[in-house]
Amino acid sequence: MADALTCAGGALLVGTDHAVADGRARRPGESVGCDHLVCESCGAEVVALPGVRLVRDLRAADEFTRLRAATALDAEPLLTRAHVAARFRLYLCRCTTDETAGASPAAAIEAGWACAGHPR
Amino acid sequence: MIQQRGGVQLKGDVGQAGDAYEAHADQVADLVVAGRSAEATLDRMAGGGAGGRATQFLHGDLSVPVRPELGDRGASVADGLAALDASRGITRDANMNNARKVEFESKLFAALLRNAALLAPAVHAVSRAVLDYIDRREALAKDSAATTLAMLGGKSNFYGRLVDAAHDDPLFATTLRGVLASGGGSLQNHVLVHHQFWEHIYEKIDWGSGVAQTLVAAAKDPKHLRGQTEITVGDTTVKPFDKSERGRVASTAAEQGGRAHEVFEGGTVPLVPAETGIHGHADGGPAAIDTGNVAQSHTRGIDMWTIDERKAFTQQARLMLDMPIAAGVSGTTADLVQCAMTMGLTGAALHRYCLAVLGFLGSAGAHSFHEIMTVCRAAGVAYTPGDYRGVYPAELEQTADFAALRAAYPDFFGGAAPSSDGG
Does pTM top 0.90 for this prediction? Predict the structure, then answer.
């Protein structure tokens, strides 16, 4: 979309201590997460699940698919809500996962996660 | 998912890996050299001994052209390898690595773990510094030290050494504090905790918020060492961690026409990851965290990544250096070594820490010698690319393990190759 704005200074991944900017780009100096990340490697939009961590690395495509569509997170055996997990957001595309507490640049993800523009 | 309810116990001490690992490494190496599958032997070791892991390196498309920086080495990587093999009589494994060097590296990694006691002081110094950092951040950040420690107990990862879900046990933080302070547990336990600390606390929470810069006067960007890592190919200097040069398919899929991560073709990891018992294998050592001996998944880096044969790092390793490659230049090494440097290690202690990382990541099936040591070199450790000599401190050279290595592979220690040498 021609008039889309991307996150200023690069998109951020954030834990639950930080908000995700709802439908808008990150402004300069803001510590808010991006809600429109796309993976350069697999082409999938990145999904964020707050307050959970993985119990192990994902190993198969169907595990990615299942978690990306998960709505009942408490019933998902690949996820844990152990007490420190409340600080994390679990991000996943179709080939890569990342758990973040605090805030970190999406550009650090090796598969290539980047802001795909706001609004969608 | 493996639930642990009995707290966390660390057994044993460093440097106790048994001869079973060496015997296993020998068995697998023999099979590799003979060109036979080592799968059954690997299964028997349940998670791979040091020798087993190296047999499953993956290679990419060898028909890609040789980069001009390498000079006249054939039209394609396959051509270049064929020429090299014809001139030197190299025997290759199924992943196109020099089989004899793979064998040597397998035994080297095992030897490093068996002599972990010589490397442990450096590793334990980092552990104590990490614990001190965690205690000092309590006053600056919102997290109590207990919470920070609990955050270090993440999911199992490529190295599989922290028990799944152990971090929800109230005893975890208390036990981990004791381990970090006293040096209990295995060398691998400590190194894995350092990586969790670096990734989840230093990089993602404390760097962006300025806490790291407040607590450590010499704090640098968490990716600093990656940026410092360079290779020289002909007249060209290349930074192998740059996105355009990272030698893994996963990081370059978009450049290759949007191809999905090769690991997931067919729906599963192509080489089935090891389901490991937590006890009694080389990468966990005898001092691994006790989960009641239940199986724990362990996905290896070698299985997770496919080499991008177009990259300068890959082509230099294959065609100029003849060094085994597995998953590309090691980012985990960069994280760990920068963590150690940030926590104050320098000189001989940093050198030994790097060798601990070499033993840890090598035996875990994550990376090859060259992929790890290229990063250590950027941290100031003596490593001439492609040369196994000069890397080990005198006390390691004097061990029985290194005497055996020197006898079996004299050419990798500056002597002549045995007459029966296949490469």
Answer: no
